[in-house]
Amino acid sequence: MADTTSAAGGARRPREHTWNTTDLPGLAGRTAVITGANSGIGFAAADALARAGAHVVLAVRDPERGRAAASRMPGSTEVRRLDLADLASVRDFAASWTAPLDLLINNAGVMMLPKQRTKDGFETQFGTNHLGHFALTNLLLPRVTGRVVTVSSSAHRWGRVRIDFGDLNQDAGYTPQRAYAQSKLANLLFTLELQRRLTESGSTVRAVAAHPGWAATNLQSHTANPVVRAVMQFGNRFLAQDDRAGALPTLYAATQDLPGASYVGPSGPAEMRGAPTLVGRTPAASDPDTARRLWTVSEELTGVGFPLTAGV
Predict the structure, then answer these.
(1) Which end of the chain is less congested by CB atoms within 10 angstroms, N or C?
(2) Would you say 233 and 180 are in contact if contact means Cβ atoms under 8 Å apart?
(3) Below-70 pLDDT ranges, the chain
(4) What is the Cα–Cα distance from 196 to 223, expressed in whole angstroms?
(5) How far, in Å, CA of 182 to CA of 25, rounded?
(6) What pLDDT does residue 115 have?
(7) pLDDT at 5
(8) pLDDT at residue number 241
(9) What pLDDT is stored for residue 229 in this prediction?
(10) Bridge-partner residues for 148, per DSSP?
(11) What is the pLDDT of residue 135?
(12) How far apart are CA 132 and CA 218, in angstroms?
């Protein structure tokens, strides 16, 4: 029997259904790669997809932690090493992939770290959150048959952030918050330009993006500023939704019939929590010229280009 709620005069009406993991389609025979799937919303998304019947590949920096996570999931899982902060590792992962891939979920990320560099010399947040996924996606794209989902963040709205093409590594006046916001803006611009190129090439693959709202995960515990970390801990306890709710926008973006370049997030106030729905983005995240420029720069920095030609 459907849930009901009281209405005026004592009448009762059906409670509105909100989309959740019970609405996932059957995914038997499908293969999904999820980066950073050993914890947080990545783990929750991987677990839900495995329960729906998909073969889920946990692409993780620490295979031991990945195997521990996979042991808690049902169904068919596999663990492969991937360090997005090391382009050699990204290339090795992609080179080892020879089968069709239905779904690539670019989920892994780092958040508001002290200034660090990747193995290739990039600022860590931009290098991991954007460049690592940029290279991985393009290297795997000839194998992808269904969809690419990239996890962004409401942080792309912080302080009217822009891509600083003159100082992508933020050598002049680095702040963890601005670097994180730039990397999350880059995720949305990447999705926009990837979809344009897919459409132009005649590919049926779709590129979409999602954000989890405020989800209580261990990502916030690595922030550099102790004051910000304390605020995050308070928010995790009293404001956030849990990681399974935070994974719903990713799962919705991965499985529902959405237009290319769509952006999915929570439906509640300030998009912090709630059922998944299509959400908006800033003008800076919608600028096709900036998206093309970022793509060109990303190709130059990673040495990886778009692999598809017209008619693919």
Answers:
(1) N
(2) no
(3) 1-16, 215-240, 310-312
(4) 34
(5) 34
(6) 95
(7) 42
(8) 85
(9) 53
(10) 104, 207
(11) 98
(12) 21
- The residue assigned the tokens 């952030």 is 161
What does the buried/exposed string (b/e) look like for 110-143 if buried means 16 or more CB atoms within 10 Å of the residue's CB?
bbbbeebebebebbbbbbbbbbbbbbbbbbbbeb
Structure tokens at 228: 């910000």
Catalytic residue flag (residue 180): yes
CA distances from 198 to 106, 265, 294 (A): 17, 23, 16
Residues 6+ apart with CB under 8 A from 120: 86, 87, 127
How far apart CA 58 and CA 42 sit, in angstroms, is 9
Choose the catalytic residue: 174, 180, 252, 263: 180
SS3 per residue for the chain:
CCCEEECHHHCEEECCCCCCHHHCCCCCCCEEEEECCCCHHHHHHHHHHHHCCCEEEEEECCHHHHHHHHCCCCCCEEEEECCCCCHHHHHHHHHCCCCCEEEEEECCCCCCCCCCECCCCCEHHHHHHHHHHHHHHHHHHHHEEEEEEEECCHHHHHHHCCCCCCCCCCCCCCCHHHHHHHHHHHHHHHHHHHHHHHHHHCCCCEEEEECCCCECCHHHHHCCCHHHHHHHHHHHHHCCECHHHHCHHHHHHHHCCCCCCCEEEECCHHHCCCCEEECCCCHHHHCHHHHHHHHHHHHHHHCCCCCCCCCC
Rounded CA separation 126/184 (Å)? 8
Instruction: Spell out a b/e string for 43-71, using b for 16 or more CB atoms within 10 Å of the CB, else e.
Output: bbbbbbbbebbbbbbbbbbeeeebeebbe
